[in-house]
Protein: Aquaporin
Organism: Edaphochlamys debaryana
Amino acid sequence: MASSVFGEAAEFLADQTGIDELVLGIFVLVSALTIFGPLCGALGGALFNPINSIAMISSGRGTALGHVIRMLGQMAGALAGTVAAKRYLPEFLHGKFHMLSGGIKEGVAFELGFACEGTMSFVLNYVFLISQEADSRLMTLWTPMLSTVVLSWVGYYFTGPSLNPFVSFAWHMHHKRQNDLEHYLVFWSAPILGALVAGLVYASGHRAPGAPSRKVRKPSKSAIAARKAETQLILEREAAARESHGHGHGTSHGHVAEDDEASHGRGHGQAQERPGRREREQQGKGAAHHQGREREAGQGKARR
């Protein structure tokens, strides 16, 4: 609905200032993007161009189901916006509605128009995907805007340009500047093809095989502090475990030493006891032998 009055606004400003209408059209576009860019960010990163969603699908960013749901909302918004613009905007703003469906400029070949839309879609989406890696929120917001401005300036002399299949289709339903085949090939197939190629090229050049597609964010200060505290706690536990292990090891050595000394003492005592036993045994044997000789001598006297 907002983009439907860009042309009328640029023409009005050109009549008032004498500045070229194309330049003022770029100025109006930049002003609108400046307003809608932060608004989209406040709504959770809303997109109003389906070729951005298609590029993100082919690059592996997000889920296909999520982007399909988003594109359904984009189509519904485009159709509702055209109906609202025709019904609620004043009549003097309807002068350029018929040009919003897109159309190849007079004298431009069909093939050149197709190549123009496809190439501009590729460049726009490739820049868009790269900008999502920027650490600066300003760069993420303004890089796609500036690329849109430059491409709109270049594409003005070929196809308008459109760069948004849903907006072109919504206005094509009201004002048909070309036949359906030309519309779907140039303003649908070419931008979608360019977005698919941009996503594939980005995925192959900016992501290692097997690497996650999600953007890696820097940890917050609270997360860093929590990790430091957790690391310190682990180190303290390891130090306490080592100290406890060292104390237990020393105690076991002490017990082993005491056991060795006790066993050594017992062995020494047994060694000292052994000679005494031998002497007593020898004395007992000597006494028995002496008694045996005395008995033999007594028996000899009795015979005599």
Notes: Residues 128 and 144 are 5 Å apart (CA to CA).
